[in-house]
Amino acid sequence: MTVACSIKLSDEEKLNVLRRVDQFWQWRSLEEKRYCLVCGEMITGREIQVIADTRGNAQLRVSCPTEHCKAIPMEWVPPTEDVLIKIAMVEAECRWLRLVTQAGRALQSYQGSASNTTGRTKSKPRLG
Ligand SMILES: [Zn+2]
Predict the structure, then answer these.
(1) Closest CA to 21 of 51, 55, 57
(2) Of the candidates 50, 22, 45, 23, which has an alpha carbon nearest to the alpha carbon of residue 34?
């Protein structure tokens, strides 16, 4: 059991919390976007959850708004051109890997069915 609950803040308060908690990047407004490295979602300051930790010191924490994602500011990066290119490259790589895997499977099942009908023949060096 965690003693924490997400709380509602005014825009100004939320922005202040973000500025205080996020020591990695500057927040100029709640409309600013961050790319979450954990869940791969683009999030805005407005969407970010502010959580009040009610154990003792009542510290405020911020957390990724995505369900089941507990990312913290350290894991958010501004979606600069560099980052966007990187994301695109990773996605392209994933697609490419999927294609390769699919092709590999297709080839395997083809070879499998081929060896079923003809029997596995080892290539022998031809004599004469
Ligand atoms: Zn996330």
Answers:
(1) 51
(2) 45
- Kindly give the distance from the C-alpha atom of residue 65 to the centroid of ligand 1, in angstroms, as a whole number: 7
The pLDDT > 90 percentage for the chain reads 51
- Around ion ligand 1, residues with a beta carbon closer than 5 Å are 36, 38-39, 64, 66, 69, 71
Which pLDDT band, with edges at 50, 70 and 90, does 121 fall under? low
78-120 pLDDT, tens digit per residue, is 988 888 888 888 888 989 999 999 999 998 888 777 665 555 5
- pTM, to two decimals: 0.63
Q: Calculate how far, in angstroms, residue 76's C-alpha sits from the geometric centre of ligand 1.
A: 8
Q: Where are the domains of the chain?
A: 4-78, 80-113
Alpha helix (H) residue ranges in the chain: 11-21, 81-118
CA dist., res. 66 & res. 83, Å (int): 19
Q: What residues contact 38, with CB distance under 8 A and at least 6 apart?
A: 64, 69, 70, 71, 75
The rounded Å distance from CA 101 to ligand 1 centre is 28
